[in-house]
Amino acid sequence: MTDRALTPHQHAVLREHATERPFTSPLNDEKRAGDFHCAGCGTLVYESDTKFDSGSGWPSFYDAVPGSVETTTDTSHGMTRTEVHCAKCGGHLGHIFPDGPRPTGLRHCINGAALEFEAKS
């Protein structure tokens, strides 16, 4: 799939599995109602009603839009984690941890550079 117009930082995160530094994304503090789309292909991946403040420094969600993401096992950096990526373009979004709120108990810890926000009016 052809990339949308990605910044070098977005390309590094989405296509090279980089991780942005914590507390650097403006989307971490985004509180408006709206939708979060994959910056690589525009697919709707998260909705604002599933976003919560995890204190981790990255935008966090307790669930994704059904069918929008897939997971793989990531064994890099000497640990085993669940990597989450866009189901459409395969872009690296972040990781999922089992320490989130109800109803799922999951924390989708997502790189803001991998997302584009569209506010609802």
From TrEMBL:
Keywords: Oxidoreductase. GO terms for molecular function: peptide-methionine (R)-S-oxide reductase activity. It catalyses: L-methionyl-[protein] + [thioredoxin]-disulfide + H2O = L-methionyl-(R)-S-oxide-[protein] + [thioredoxin]-dithiol. GO terms for biological process: protein repair; response to oxidative stress. GO terms for cellular component: cytoplasm. Signal peptide: none annotated. Residues 1-31 are annotated as: Disordered. Its EC number is 1.8.4.12. It comes from Sandarakinorhabdus glacialis. NCBIfam families: peptide-methionine (R)-S-oxide reductase MsrB. Residues 1-120 form the MsrB domain. This is peptide-methionine (R)-S-oxide reductase. PROSITE patterns: MSRB.
